[in-house]
Amino acid sequence: MTPAETRDRTGTMIPARERRRFRAESVLMRLVATAGIVALGVALGAILVSADVAGWIVGLVVASISVVLSALLWSSRQL
């Protein structure tokens, strides 16, 4: 396939991905990403608690960040 044909099909110079992911691979990627979101929430909570932030603010911030990142993760068609 020539670069012009690739650009016409995808709108970019990057070739289209021909390989489809297996379902198990997709589930594993989502689980790893979800674990990363949980780890980020724990780290953010620890940082806020060490800065003597009120408990309800820590909960609000960690829950909000977790919900937003999870929504982005699960709406992604790449995983």
Structure commentary:
It is a single chain. Helix content is 72%, strand content 0%. The protein has 79 residues and is mostly helical. The protein has a domain at 21-75. Helix 2 packs antiparallel against helix 3. It is elongated. The mean pLDDT is 80.
What's the assembly state of these chains? single chain
* Major sheet details: none
Task: Please provide the count of β strands.
Answer: 0
Our estimate of the beta-strand percent is under 5%
For the termini, the CA-CA separation is: 26 Å
> Structural class per helix/strand content?
mainly alpha
Listing every helix as H and every strand as E from the N terminus to the C terminus, the arrangement reads HHH
Mean pLDDT across the residues is: 80
| Poorly predicted sequence stretches spanning 5 or more consecutive residues | none
Return Rg in Å: 19 Å
Helix content: over 70%
How many helices does DSSP assign?
A: 3
The 3D shape can be described as elongated
